Amino acid sequence: MKPTFNKNLRFLVVGLGLMGGSYAYALSKRGFQVYAIDIQPKTIAYAKKSGLIKDGAVMDVDLIRQADVILFGLYPNAMVDWIKTYQEYMRPNTLISDVAGVKHRIVETIQSFLRDDVEFIASHPMAGKEVSGVEHANDEMFQQANFIITPTEKNSEAAIAFMKQFAKELDFANISILSCEKHDEMIGYVSQLTHVIAISLMNANDDPDLVHYTGDSFRDLTRIARINENLWTELFFLNKENLMKEIDDFTDALLKLKQTLKEEDTDTLKQMMILSTQRRKLFDKPKKR
Amino acid sequence: MKPTFNKNLRFLVVGLGLMGGSYAYALSKRGFQVYAIDIQPKTIAYAKKSGLIKDGAVMDVDLIRQADVILFGLYPNAMVDWIKTYQEYMRPNTLISDVAGVKHRIVETIQSFLRDDVEFIASHPMAGKEVSGVEHANDEMFQQANFIITPTEKNSEAAIAFMKQFAKELDFANISILSCEKHDEMIGYVSQLTHVIAISLMNANDDPDLVHYTGDSFRDLTRIARINENLWTELFFLNKENLMKEIDDFTDALLKLKQTLKEEDTDTLKQMMILSTQRRKLFDKPKKR
Questions:
Q1: I want to staple B15 with a disulfide (CB 3.0 to 4.6 A). Which of A177, A272, B73, B96 is the partner?
Q2: Which domains occur in chain B, in start order?
Q3: What is the pLDDT of residue B1?
Q4: How far is B140 from chain A (nearest CA, A)?
């Protein structure tokens, strides 16, 4: 029987980075039993000392065997490898979820080789910080964040319901259900393209004096140019078709705008500004659905 | 004799928008005599009632005649027309400055026809808000802002010194001197290109559902997509050569990044991310020079 959401659940967090660590923090704070596996002994030691977890190890198959729910805070490809290697130790009816920022390829891959008596229900907590590591673990960032569950035809209603309760318990602001495909399209635009833009903008000009003249708008726009190159290279490649399409659509809009400058086409330029103003206004509304 | 900076100076603000109004507010608060001219009778009435100005009018040539310093809060082209029409009423040695976000063309034009006994010393207070209008006038936004003076060979050292004192008096965080050409290049990148990007990004996708999934990074990046189309069309056209070049450089970086996706060129993509991270870090340093 699949686990139902209750306080006696035993969670195993694999990968105690910012997200995995924050899950551990949030769950322990709410009275759940939380254990962890992480590649770094000192990370485990820190998490145990700080009360994020009851116990943990670099590897201990008993921790896998005893878990009702396994939450992965690993990079996507590392997660695929981990599950492939260690799924044999999972107990029947274990529920698995993740935090990966892209879904389609990863979920398809995992569900293709996963044991039939274990269920992987993918989810994406759209929270984050510019810092990484377990020492920044905290659950405050969940309170303004979207939690997206991306089930496939291989998932059960029970697992979807479980993840909804999980997200509610952790106080996420919004909970949505999206297909993996729709999720990755959306993320290609609202997250990945914006990072591509910030990276490109910082790569396009090397005048160090500019720092003295920047205003808030430039700072806001480039804040996300500080980026973990290992994680994001992986995320970009895992969603490259969507991201390349988004870059193309954006480039088209950019070149259309450039053309209005060249031709001093006041009407078209103003229309683009009026449209951007109208669309952006929608985003100022309260996020609660 | 040119005015020296002292508390008995009589200022005339022409155009009581957000910037002109904030100048009036800041100067009156500091005990200067401030008068104003604005196209809207109700704006004058509001400014007088709120203590931003001593008096004002839609047009009163005596206000021009009696001013030691005239500060323009008008749109650039409107300012050129205004000076052309009313310069005959200015007293000898009047000092004129402005708030325009682009300089080269405007300054060259004004200085080409301006009376020899009146001096136009251009400046750019790099402050602003997403709102406009005199009712939002305030001087708090100056305290974190850059104040840039853009003198030409036609300007006197006395006028440059005057504007420095003016900016100090109003508590600007940094005061810089730049040529008009260098100013417009810089502004093409740090301000205009960022607005072009935000506008293009909002024009590139029309899925209204996206609002439910946006994170802070998208909100930050598109905040400036809410834009006054009349002012910014004018600013873009007045700096179109620089801005088109910046769009080209940015597009090159964007297409280079897209190519790394196409070819799954991990090394180049990571290098771009490392470079953007390094460069962006500089912008987190305190702004004070």
A1: B73
A2: 10-178 (3.40.50.720), 183-282 (1.10.3660.10)
A3: 60
A4: 14
